[in-house]
Amino acid sequence: MWNHRRRILQHQFTQSSPDHPTLTEPDGNNQQSKSDEIVEGLITEDLQFLVPLLLRFPKCYWIWNYRLWLLQQTSRILPAAKARQFWTDELGLIGKMLARDSRNFLGWGYRRTVITELESKALNPDTSTTSLVKEEFDYTTRMIETNMSNFSAWHNRSKLIPRLLDESKADDQERRRMLDKALYVDPYDQSLWFYHQYLMCTFDPQLSSNTMAPNLTYEERLEYISTEIDKVVEMLEGAEKCKWIFQSLIQLCLTYKAIASHWPLQAKELRNWMIELEKLDPLRKGRWTDVVRTLQI
Predict the structure, then answer these.
(1) What's the rounded Cα separation, in Å, for the pair 118 and 84?
(2) pTM greater than the 0.70 cutoff
(3) Looking at residues 168-192, what average pLDDT do you find?
(4) Whole-angstrom distance, CA of residue 253 vs CA of residue 68
(5) Are 258 and 221 in contact (CB under 8 A)?
C-alpha cells in the first residue's frame, strides 16, 4: 500500500517538473516556482495526512519509513532553504511525539536521522559547519531528567558524547570530568547501569581507542577503575539486594585485570560478590558458576 502511494506521488512529481509539457509558462523561473509550489503542496498534504496515523500507531515502522521518504523528496527536489524548513518542522513534530512517549525507540532513531539531515551540506550549502550536537546533548539531559529509565535517551547520549568532546576540542582533563558525571541516583535502575557500563568501556584496552578518552595513560586507567570500584562498593550500603552493583564490580575487576595483568586489591571480595550474585540472579546461576570456574576464584 505504501509503495503504491509512493509511486503515485512520484508520477505527480514528474508531472509537476518544469520540463513537463503541462507547464508551459515561457518564463523558466516561473515554471520552476510553480513546480516547487506543486511539490510543496503534495508533500505537505501527505505529511499532514500521516500525523493522526502516527498518533494512533506510533510504533508502526512503515508510517515512519514513508514519512522519511517524503522528507527525502524535499531534499532531492526543492531548493535547500525550502527543504530545510520541512526538516526543521519535522524536528519539532518528533519532539512532541517523544513528549507523548519518551521511550519510543522508533521515534529516537527517526530523530537521529532528521538531525543528520539538518547538519548535512545539502541543506546548508552556504555554511561550512552546522552542528547540532550540543543542542541534542542538552535535549537528552532534559529527557533523562524527566524519566531516568529512558533507555533510548541514554543510548542517544552515548552516541553524542564522543562528538561533543571532539567538536569542543576537549583536553584529557575535560574528558575525565565528563566520565565523573556517571549518575548514581537509583541503584535498581537498569538503564543507569547500562550507561555506566558504556562509560567504563573507556578504560578497556581493546575498546579505548574509540571512546571519549582514548589518551589516558596506563596509570590513569588503573587509578580511575580502582576509585570507581570503591564508589560502587559504597553503593552496596542500603542496596545489598541489587544485582547490578555486583555485576558492575565484577566487570570493573575484569577490566582492571585486562589492563594490569593482575587483580585489583578489592578483588579479594570477588568470590563473595559472585556468591551473592548467584543468589540474587538464580535464573542465570549457571552462567555465574561458569564465570567462577573460568576465573578460578
Answers:
(1) 7
(2) yes
(3) 72
(4) 45
(5) no
